[in-house]
């Protein structure tokens, strides 16, 4: 009778010690977010209010301005940028789309950006599940599009993305600090 009790006691002690060592990571300073086209698609779907199928989804991390000079300093001009923070931004298309005159097939891709003061080169790349832009390979680019970098009067504290519906599809609007860029996507 003592032996089974000792074994159970030892296992419980081991389980408690293991659980005591479990430590969750601190909250990330650049939280992960996503946006959909059509906007709010998951919420509309569970409410039975969808009027069109899901076309695209973006998953990205949202760094904060935090009183820093973003473009030209924190994000260097003319250098590859992961378009957010942490893992490189991912975009998924649920049907073939047209970007900058090129067909981008249904699937999941990584997005990058090469910002300059006047224009941003937005890049859709085949490589996925990557951290930052450390392993960026230009040979895996699907499409590159140059779009104007527009100065705004409003300062956006958290790096932000959203899809804005157009007659032919949508624009992926990207904003941070006092700069905004839009990538036209035809459906």
Topology:
Blueprint: H1 2-21, E1 32-37, H2 41-46, E2 56-61, E3 90-93, E4 97-99, E5 102-104, E6 107-115, E7 119-125, E8 141-148, E9 150-165, E10 169-186
Antiparallel strand pairs: 1-2, 2-3, 3-6, 4-5, 6-7, 7-8, 9-10
Give an overview of the whole structure.
This protein is 14% helix and 43% strand. The longest helix is centred in the N-terminal third of the chain and has 20 residues, at 2-21. It starts with a helix and ends with a strand. The chain is mainly β. The strands form three sheets. The chain has a six-stranded antiparallel beta sheet, with no helix packed on it. Strands 4-5 form a two-stranded antiparallel ribbon. It has two helices and ten strands. The protein has helices spanning 2-21, 41-46, and strands spanning 32-37, 56-61, 90-93, 97-99, 102-104, 107-115, 119-125, 141-148, 150-165, 169-186. It has one domain (26-186).
Structural class: mainly beta
**Total number of beta strands:** 10
Put simply, the count of helices is 2
Q: What share of the residues lie within helices? A: 10-25%
Distance between the ends: 72 Å
Q: What is the count of structural domains?
A: 1
Strand content: 35-45%
How would you write the strand order of the largest sheet?
1-2-3-6-7-8
Low-confidence region ranges: none
Which outline best applies? globular
Radius of gyration from the CA trace?
Answer: 22 Å
Average pLDDT, rounded to a whole number, is 91
Tell me about the largest β-sheet.
6 strands, antiparallel
One letter per element, helices H and strands E, the order comes to: HEHEEEEEEEEE
């Amino acid at each position: 009778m003592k032996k089974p009790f000792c074994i159970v006691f030892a296992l419980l002690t081991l389980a408690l010690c293991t659980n005591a060592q479990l430590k969750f990571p601190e909250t990330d300073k650049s939280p992960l977010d996503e946006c959909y086209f059509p906007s709010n698609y998951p919420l509309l779907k569970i409410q039975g209010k969808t009027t069109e199928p899901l076309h695209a989804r973006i998953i990205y991390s949202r760094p904060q301005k935090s009183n820093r000079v973003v473009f030209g300093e924190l994000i260097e001009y003319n250098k590859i940028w992961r378009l957010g923070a942490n893992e490189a931004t991912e975009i998924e298309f649920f049907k073939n789309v047209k970007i900058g005159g090129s067909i981008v097939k249904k699937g999941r891709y990584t997005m990058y950006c090469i910002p300059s003061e006047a224009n941003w080169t937005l890049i859709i790349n085949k490589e996925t599940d990557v951290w930052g832009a450390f392993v960026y390979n230009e040979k895996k680019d699907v499409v590159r599009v140059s779009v104007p970098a527009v100065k705004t009067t409003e300062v956006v504290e958290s790096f932000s993305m959203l899809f804005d519906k157009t007659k032919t599809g949508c624009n992926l609007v990207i904003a941070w600090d006092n700069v905004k860029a839009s990538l036209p996507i035809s459906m």
